[in-house]
Design brief:
The complex is a heterodimer of chains A (about 550) and B (about 325). Chain A is mostly helical and about 550 residues long. In chain A, about 70% of the residues lie in helices and about 0% in strands. Chain A is globular. Chain B has a 5-stranded mixed β-sheet with strand order 3-2-1-5-8, covered by helices on one side. In chain B, strands 4-10-9-6-7 form a 5-stranded mixed β-sheet, with helices on one face. The termini of chain B are far apart. Classes of the chains: A mainly alpha (about 550), B alpha+beta (about 325).
Chain lengths: ~550, ~325
């Protein structure tokens, strides 16, 4: 065939895996290879994860005693602001897309790279630059406004480095937009022959929905923070009523971005779980089209629920009613996904490797996070529960219990592909169990604290809340150990881990058809797709072979 | 240490029932999800040779079933939460009004009789209370967990909150909107007592003048009476040379603005007229009113508004 003639010289050029294709610093810092950029990103967000985690650890330390272990309320306020800013913009939002997404998307659709490799590299530099600006504002004194930057506290009263932090977030936003744009174009234009939309794994659909949100919502955040900076510097009256502005306007604009951003954090997690559950159940995914369209539905409805952050803020009665029912609507597709994952396990051949344990932990914790979301979507219940520890627990169940578990699940799942080495399986499983236990011990007491009325963002608190706070802080030490564990054994595996085969899990998906680690060119020849995704053999066939 | 929270208002039990319903629904769904996962983990583990049979080809019936079930449950919860919220949104007309001013980092309370307190609120049980709240600086939030109520306190606005306490006692008052360094010190107590005791308390802490009387003094001091007349009777009638609108009977009445729209003269409208006269200028008067922005404190504004409220056309002469 003529194809072979064309491919032959290509094949001759293929010499090495992407990891051995150049060892100089330059070959990493100026690479346009999506795989190397993913590794750069992985290193960067790991640093931010532990910076944000250190802030959280200090906060839990402070809350052991009612008067606060850290003497200064100012310091505590700066800690939780830094924790929020770093975790939201420098870990949760980018985590899955820029690491796993960057690495896996081109492999999954059978492409050589993302559509705009240079833009991809630029997005990493923007991200690093944004991170440095954020760290700068941190080291020169920090910000004490909370990650939500409510006006007029931020625009007129706070003495922290608000403008520097806002600039950092705006730059990080450009990085997000570049990544989102790259994924959208890649998924539209670079699918391998035969890779129709309905043959795409759910992970790609999830990242597609995520990218659309990133591209559409992030500019609103940039505008909002610019207006905030202008008001702070030049005293133009936009948000401060003393200057003729409207303080609620800021909240509307901020949540118009920040609520969809919640789905930017969790949708890629849904995608990861939708790869892992079928792979470790050896069964095709249950209700593929429902799962796919649920991702899209979540992406759309997520833009219409921002007002549920403002049920006690002084908005109108009618807007509260509308936002309440829309918030229930956005929960429906998430519930459908959970049922479909369970349906996938039905009649499967389930193995319990570390990625699957993390994924099962995700389903449990995300379900609890989602269900407690129903409490705060119910208007009269929200009045009592909002702005207390109940809300803190709720979104940590979704963001940390859900999203971070999904990130770890995906990291373990694709680790052999990324590094060419297996992580130590027993340590992996132990990590998954310890994180699950530590997480629940840390955050479950906070639901009760919230119901009893303990407000969030309090440096000191009435003594009746102490027992539950001590429980939570004790759980946090287990959780911290659980997060340090993977850092240790995965680093170890880079040097001493067993060599991974091309497809150690026996999973479907094009990324498993190339070597581990992949060649710089990804595939020797462009693959052709002829079957639906998750085409695991039906149980009766598997059973005959057992 | 206790794991329950007193239900001190008439609506607290209702909020708790709603939360209990949410809790039971959640537990049922959790039991289903965790139960199925555990069941399948055991039954369909890779090592189990249980007969899996043949996979069903069509799944849409199941999908439709759980979608509809989820929708119905969610809609029920929405209606329940919304119904209660709507009722809690509308204060009864006879509610006792108490004024709250938040500032970094304290709560200042003013009673109609002129009594003032800081970080404490005394009120009677068995009677609807409406708080009229504003802030001198940033956004605060007035929250009493035992009452199951909470509302943001905004600068430049009057937000209201109403409830009826039915259990005498002392309860925590928190600021629950992050408001700067001393946020967790913006902490106080609400003392609910039977009406006779409350009347007693009012007398013992009696101010020399009521809120409205204090407002009258301010009305003179800031020169309002110069144009609006001594008893707010209006400029052209009571010896004043300037034509300014009469204020007696103004509160609660419709006002036609210069752009032809009609608004009700409520607290916020009067406040805006004093601080931002350009914003909503009343029709058929010359634009002579100066802005008092930055000159009158929030507490004095409340007094002046209380005074204007107290003026009725009959009281003129």
């Amino acid at each position: 065939m003529s194809d072979t003639v064309i491919e032959a010289p290509e094949f001759a050029k293929v010499t090495a895996s992407y990891l051995t294709d150049g060892f100089t610093l330059r070959s990493w810092l100026l690479t346009t290879d999506h795989k190397r950029i993913a590794v750069l990103y992985l290193g960067t967000i790991t640093i931010f994860f532990f910076v944000g985690g250190a802030a959280a650890a200090l906060m839990r330390y402070n809350l052991i005693v009612p008067e606060g272990m850290i003497g200064s309320a100012e310091t505590y306020n700066r800690l939780f602001t830094m924790h929020g800013v770093v975790m939201v913009w420098f870990f949760l939002i980018p985590a899955v897309p820029v690491t796993l997404g960057n690495f896996i998307v081109p492999l999954m659709i059978g492409a050589r790279d993302l559509a705009f490799p240079k833009l991809n590299l630029i997005s990493w530099y923007l991200f690093v630059f944004a991170g440095l600006v954020a760290l700068y504002s941190l080291f020169v004194g920090g910000v004490d406004t909370g990650w939500t930057f409510y006006t007029p506290l931020t625009s007129a009263y706070s003495k922290g480095h608000v403008v520097a932090t806002a600039v950092a977030i705006i730059i990080a936003g450009f990085s997000s937009i570049a990544t989102g744009l790259n994924f959208i174009v890649t998924i539209h234009r670079l699918r391998a022959p035969g890779m129709t939309w309905y043959r795409m794994p759910v992970f790609l659909w999830s990242l597609y929905a995520t990218s659309v949100i990133l591209v559409m919502a992030t500019p609103v955040l940039a505008m909002t923070l610019l207006l905030l900076a202008f008001e702070r510097i030049f005293h133009i009256g936009v948000f401060d009523p003393a200057l003729g502005g409207d303080p609620l306007l800021f909240q509307h604009l901020f949540w118009f971005y920040s609520h969809p951003a919640v789905y930017v954090m969790i949708l890629p997690g849904f995608g990861v779980i939708s790869e892992i559950i079928p792979a470790f159940s050896r069964k095709r995914i249950f209700g593929y089209k429902f799962i796919v369209w649920c991702s899209i539905a979540i992406g759309v409805i997520s833009f219409l629920v921002w007002g549920h952050h403002m049920f006690v803020a002084g908005t109108s009665l009618y807007s509260a009613l509308v936002f309440s029912i829309l918030s229930y609507m956005v929960a429906v597709p998430s519930a459908i996904k959970v049922f479909n994952w369970i349906g996938t396990m039905h009649k499967g051949f389930i193995r319990f490797d570390a990625p699957m344990l993390y994924a099962l932990g995700f389903i449990g914790l995300f379900t609890m996070g989602g269900l407690t979301g129903l409490f705060v979507a119910a208007l009269a219940a929200d009045v009592h529960l909002t702005q207390t520890y109940f809300v803190v627990a709720h979104f940590h169940y979704v963001m940390v219990g859900g999203m971070v578990s999904a990130f770890f699940a995906g990291l373990h799942f694709w680790w052999p592909k990324i590094t060419g080495r297996m992580y130590p399986e027993m340590w992996g499983r132990a990590g998954a169990v310890i994180i699950f236990i530590g997480f629940n011990l840390t955050f479950f007491p906070q639901f009760i604290l919230g119901y009893l009325g303990m407000p969030r963002r309090y440096h000191s608190y009435p003594p009746e809340f102490q027992v539950l706070n001590v429980l939570s802080s004790a759980g946090a030490t287990i959780l911290a150990a659980g997060y340090l564990l993977p850092l240790g054994y995965m680093t170890w595996s880079l040097f001493y881990g067993k060599r991974a085969s091309a497809n150690p899990w026996g999973a479907t998906g094009l990324e498993w058809q190339t070597s581990s680690p992949p060649l710089t060119e990804n595939f020797v020849t462009t693959p052709t797709v002829t079957e639906p995704p998750y085409n695991y053999p039906p149980p009766e066939v598997v059973q005959h072979h057992v | 240490m206790r794991f329950w929270l007193p239900q001190a208002t008439t609506s607290a039990a209702e909020v708790d029932y709603l939360i209990l319903a949410l809790l039971l629904t959640s537990c049922a769904i959790l039991a289903l999800v965790f139960g199925l996962i555990l069941l399948y983990m055991i039954k369909y583990r890779a090592g189990s040779d249980i007969d899996r049979g043949v996979l069903a080809d069509k799944t849409w019936r199941l999908e439709a079933a759980w979608t509809v079930a989820t929708l119905l449950i969610f809609f029920g919860l929405f209606v329940w939460g919304a119904d209660l919220y709507v009722r809690l949104f509308q204060p009864p007309p006879d509610a006792l009004k108490i004024y709250v001013v938040g500032k970094q980092w304290m709560w200042k309370i003013e009673h109609q009789g002129g009594q003032r307190e800081i970080n404490a609120l005394h009120l009677p049980v068995g009677r609807p209370i409406q708080l009229v709240m504003t802030s001198e600086d940033v956004i605060h939030d007035f929250s009493v967990p035992a009452f199951r109520i909470k509302h943001d306190v905004l600068p430049g606005r009057y937000e209201t909150l109403w409830f009826e306490v039915n259990e005498p006692g002392t309860y925590h008052l928190f600021c629950t909107q992050f408001c700067g360094t001393g946020h967790s010190d913006m902490f106080g107590e609400v003392v609910a007592m039977p009406d006779p005791e409350y009347q007693n308390w009012l007398e013992q802490n009696g101010a020399s003048e009521t809120l409205a009387q204090a407002g009258q003094t301010l009305f003179m001091r800031y020169g309002c009476s110069g144009c609006h007349g001594g008893n707010g009777a209006g400029g052209s009638q009571s010896g004043s040379t300037v034509r300014a609108p009469a204020l007696a009977g103004l509160y609660g009445s419709p006002v036609t603005l210069i752009d032809g729209s009609i608004v009700t003269a409520d607290d916020l409208y009067i406040r805006d007229c004093i601080l931002l006269p350009e914003r909503r200028r009343v029709a058929s008067y010359p634009p002579l009113m100066p802005s008092f922005a930055g000159q009158i404190s929030e507490e004095d504004l409340l007094k002046i508004i209380a005074y204007i409220k107290s003026l009725t056309p009959e009281k003129q002469s």
